[in-house]
Each structure stands twice: as C-alpha cells, then as structure tokens.
Amino acid sequence: MQKFFSNKKLIILMVILIVTFGLLAVTVNIRDNKKTPPAIQQVGNDVVSVVGGVFAYPTNAVKSASSEFSDLYNTYTENKHLKSRIDELSQNQVKLKVVQEENKKLKQELKLNSTLTDYSTINASVLSRSPSSWQSYLTINRGSSSGLKKNMPVMSGKGLIGRIIEVDKISSKVELISTNNELNDKFASEILDDNNNAVTGVVSRYDSDSGKLVMENVNNTKNIKKGQRVMTSGLGGVTPRGLYIGKVYGIKKDNYGMTNSVYITPAAELRNFTVVTVIKSSVSGEK
C-alpha cells in the first residue's frame, strides 16, 4: 500500500480519471435536466462530446488494429493455401508429363498410331444463328476446304456443344446438343466414379425447362454423385473419348419409376458463343 501511494504518477492518473468521470456524470445530469438553461445544456453537450471523443479515439484505434490484424492473418492463411495449391498443380503437371511420355512409349510398343483420345482441332467463327432455331442449329465459316466432315463434334470454351450435320465448301451447319430434334445423333458418354470405374450412357436430349442435358441408358447409377464430370466415351465411333460435356446435376426416375436419367449441367454456355472448335478424330480416319 505504501508503495502504491509512493507512485505519484499513478495517483495523479487515478485522480484525473475520477474527476473526469465525476464531471461527466454531473454534466450528463445537468444536460438531461429539463430545467437547466439552454446555455448550460449546450456546455454539457460539448463536455460530453469532448470526453466521448477522448475515449473513442483509443477504442477505435484498438478496433482498427484488431481488424487489420485479422485481415493480415486471413491474407496469410489464404496465401499459404494458394502456395499449397501451386505445389499441387506443379506436381500434377509433372505427373501428367510422365504419363504422357509413358503413353507415347506404350503406343510405340503396341504400334498404335492413334487411340480414342487422339484428335486435332480447327477453330471457326459462327456465321449465322437463326432466332427461330436458336437452340438447334448454327452455321460456321469452315467447310470441306478446311478438312471438315460430317459428324465431327464441335466445342465452345471447355464444353461440347454439338456436331456437324452438313458440310459445304467454305461453311458447315452444326446441330447443337441442345436441339429439340428427337432424331438427332446421340453422344455416347461416361462418368468416372470415385473408383475410376466408367458408368456409361448416352446423352440423348436437352431439358429446356431446367437447362440441363439428359443422359439415358445409364448402366448403373449406384456410385454416381452430384458434381462428377461427364465426358464422351468414344464408343460411338465418330466422337473421340474425353470431350468434356458437363457435371452431374442429379438423377431422376422416369414417369414409371423404371429407369434413371442423369441430369447434367452443360460445361459450355449453350445460348451465346461466337467462336467454336471443331474436333477432328484420328481414329475415325478424319485426319
């Protein structure tokens, strides 16, 4: 206790705080008293404002410092996560390169010139797209003079959008995967489950109400989950394997509850594109 009273700075600080709070309490009472003259109420308001500002400044400073520290920690955490992702991508690139080299050597060993995954690409621009058949057909500025042939698949961005159905010398007509033509050619497709087993089926129609593609004749839906990737299987004979179609949205039974259909969110934006990529399969001899 003697040591406490011997600290003059601490005593002065305590006295200042007591006087300040006492003055503040008196000022508030005077200000809130309706009988107090307006001039005195104005003085009370000024005192409360000044004292409030004095205490608000360090409080806001601490709050600001806490917020900045939180932002800094979040940035550090995000940066750490991104670095781990970069390392993971680098490892995957190395693995992919090794697998490609092994695949190339295996083909040489087996004397395989091409497989279902081998294809080349030709870029083309959309010449026309009739509003009356917007979801069904379009015309591109490449034709037989560019090596295009009937039944070649067409992609836009990262997803499959259709197939060439007519070829002229300098232009071609593409039937979109979103067509309502029930006689259109189907796309043999597959979904790789968690064990890398292929679940096969056929993307056969487009549900315009939901904006989803529909995969039917599915051999087994047991291990199919939402978000799994759907791609061409190459089993149709005219479309290479591995062309990305979209992701599984859900599974629905037909009206009789007998068969399952897999609904797919298209990878490509099917309503708006100006540039497409035509796929030339090597297996079908369409070099």
Describe the structure.
This is Cell shape-determining protein MreC. The protein has helices spanning 2-6, 8-32, 38-110, and strands at 119-128, 137-140, 153-156, 159-167, 172-176, 187-192, 198-207, 212-216, 229-232, 244-253, 260-266, 275-281. It is α+β, with helices and mostly antiparallel strands and 287 residues long. The strands form 2 sheets. A 6-stranded antiparallel beta barrel has the order 1-2-5-4-3-12. The longest helix has 73 residues, at 38-110.
**Name of the CATH architecture of the domain at 187-266:** Beta Barrel
Largest sheet: 6 strands, antiparallel, barrel
The best one-word shape is elongated
Can you tell me the CATH class of the domain at 187-266?
Mainly Beta
Low-confidence stretches: none
CATH superfamily of the domain at 187-266: Rod shape-determining protein MreC, domain 2
Q: Could you tell me the number of beta strands?
A: 12
Pfam families: MreC
Family: Belongs to the MreC family.
Protein name: Cell shape-determining protein MreC
InterPro entries: Cell/Rod_1 (IPR042177), Cell/Rod_MreC_2 (IPR042175), MreC (IPR007221), MreC_beta-barrel_core (IPR055342)
